[in-house]
Amino acid sequence: MDKILIRNLELRTIIGLYERERTAKQALILNLELRGDFSRAGKTDSLEGSVNYREVEEQVIALVENSSFHLLEALGEAVAALCLSFPEVVSVKITLDKPGAALRADSIALEIERSR
């Protein structure tokens, strides 16, 4: 299985349960691992048979920055569903980091994997 990685995508959104978290956008760091058979693209040097990672990135940015979720889990599910809507992507691994959410740790993170 081939992988396309989108690393350390910095985003801002409304996320959290508490009132103080819902008044202003907070920073999130998103990492995506898009999986599929992209060998045809490698053999033909053509985007056909792969996924346009720029399009994925643009759609993920729009989704996240225009959303308002209470839980990282819900946001992760929405991002996973979006990624799996691309026909070439058969599974996705997502890591969402919420910097500053913990008392003594750098961040709180969620990692999920979904497939068709």
What does this structure look like?
The chain is of the alpha+beta class and 116 residues long. It is built from 3 helices and 5 strands, in the order ββααβαββ. The chain has helices at residues 39-44, 53-65, 72-84, and strands at residues 2-15, 26-36, 68-69, 91-99, 107-115. The protein has a 5-stranded mixed beta sheet. The longest helix is centred in the middle third of the chain and has 13 residues, at 53-65. The two termini are 14 Å apart.
Give the oligomeric state of the chains in this entry, treating copies of one chain as homo and distinct chains as hetero: single chain
Specify the overall morphology.
elongated
**Kindly, what is the distance between the CA atoms of the first and last residues, rounded to a whole number of angstroms?**
14 Å
Largest sheet: 5 strands, mixed
How many helices does DSSP assign? 3
Helix and strand element order? EEHHEHEE
Spatial arrangement of strands, main beta sheet: 3-1-2-4-5
Main structural class: alpha+beta
User: In which range does the helix fraction lie?
Assistant: 25-40%
> What is the mean pLDDT?
96
Q: How many beta-strand runs?
A: 5
Beta fraction of the residues? 35-45%
Using only C-alpha atoms, the radius of gyration works out to 15 Å
In the predicted model, the low-confidence regions spanning at least 5 consecutive residues are: none
